[in-house]
Design brief:
alpha+beta; Uridine Diphospho-n-acetylenolpyruvylglucosamine Reductase, domain 2; Uridine Diphospho-n-acetylenolpyruvylglucosamine Reductase, domain 3; Uridine Diphospho-n-acetylenolpyruvylglucosamine Reductase, domain 1; binds flavin-adenine dinucleotide
Length: 319
């Protein structure tokens, strides 16, 4: 297994692709063109080519943290995702392409008796998306085990930088501001017996299936708002779902956008749902918590494109 692109290119493009087919919310209109690629080199040459042609683009991975506008976007969308893991093992380090699905990376680590990624079992999306958003669960996050990352700036400059330069904090890295693209990441893991890792993974998957919506029946983008910042260093983050529930959030809905019955911080799509419904419902949820607790919720899910009522100062395609 290596990160080098095969002779037969995986790059393919589709004009006017519907973004509802590439996001877990199953919502969103068309983009100008969707270019799919799996390997770092292919992504690099795609971006260099778009830059040469002065074309606007955005990059997505698994589309599991996005709500795309109903009218779509007037830009090219690059989808950096591989259905097969693209990973090199160097002793206890794994060098993983940003396009590899996070859960495939977890399985690869487990099969190689490596510990450090197991907590991420079942988190949708790619390793690239997980690094950008410092995805996590059970008190652990991607930034904890990342040693370095190879990025490509939007202008096409490639460099490897230490993970400590990424400013990781709760569900955040500096990459959210810079817009730099993750080609691959190097994770430092440690040896562990395989069977306990497997048991732990199965327990996590079971827990997740009890708590999280099944994407086939309840399309969504996971938790909509970030958990609440602690008021002192001694405290942990408080679950936003609890505040939403106390504020009557579970009874809210707009059109086909509803609250998941087992988790007040998750909006799910039902019949007739539009992206604008989701946008409007998230405003109602934030208003309910503000009125009851005087707390301002911070959004975790990212919007792509234009929505009625979006902040005037919002610029760019992803906000
Ligand atoms: C059912 C469900 C459960 C979830 N549970 C969790 C959970 O437990 N913990 C958690 O943290 N999250 C969770 N999420 C949210 C989501 O899975 C994560 O945020 C995930 O890491 C997003 O990855 P993605 O590839 O889908 O990114 P996308 O949604 O495609 O993109 C998200 C952002 O990342 C950027 N991006 C994507 N790939 C790259 C790249 N290679 N380089 C630079 N930027 C990139 C995009 O431009 C965009 O700004 C859940 C979502 C769902 C639907």
């Amino acid at each position: 297994m290596n990160l080098t692109a095969p002779a037969k290119s995986t790059v393919h493009s589709k004009p006017n692709a519907l973004l509802s087919e590439y996001t877990t919310f199953r919502l969103g209109g068309a983009c100008r063109e969707l270019i799919a690629c799996a390997y770092p080199q292919e992504l690099e040459s795609t971006i260099l080519d778009l830059n040469k042609r002065n074309e606007n683009f955005i990059l997505i991975g698994g589309g599991s943290n996005l709500v795309v506008a109903d009218q779509g976007i007037k830009a090219t969308v690059i989808r950096y995702l591989s259905c097969q893991p693209i990973i090199i093992k160097e002793e206890n380090d794994l060098i993983i392409s940003g396009s590899t699905l996070l859960d495939h990376a977890v399985l690869f680590a487990l099969e190689n008796s490596l510990e450090g990624l197991n907590y991420a079992s079942g988190i949708p999306g790619t390793v690239g998306g997980a690094i950008v958003g410092n995805a996590g669960a059970f008190g652990k996050q991607v930034g904890d085990y990342l040693k370095s990352v190879c990025i490509l700036t939007k202008q096409g400059v490639k460099k490897e930088i230490p993970a400590s330069d990424l400013g990781f904090r709760y569900r955040h890295s500096n990459l959210k501001e810079t817009g730099d693209i993750v080609l691959w990441g190097r994770f430092g893991l440690s040896w562990a017996a395989r069977d306990p890792l497997l048991t732990e993974r199965q327990d996590i998957l079971k827990l997740r299936s009890e708590k999280h919506p099944n994407l086939q029946t309840h399309p969504c983008a996971g938790s909509f708002f970030r958990n609440i910042e602690p008021t002192s260093r001694a405290e942990r983050r408080q679950a936003t779902g609890w505040f939403l529930e106390q504020a009557g959030g579970k009874s809210l809905s707009v059109g086909g956008a509803k609250i998941f019955d087992r988790h007040a911080n998750i909006i799910v799509k039902s019949n007739g749902c539009t992206s604008q419904d989701v946008h409007d419902l998230h405003l109602l949820m934030a208003k309910a918590v503000k009125e009851k607790f005087s707390l301002d919720l911070e959004r975790e899910v990212r919007f792509v494109g234009n929505f009625r009522g979006m902040p005037a100062e919002t610029q760019g395609f992803i906000w």
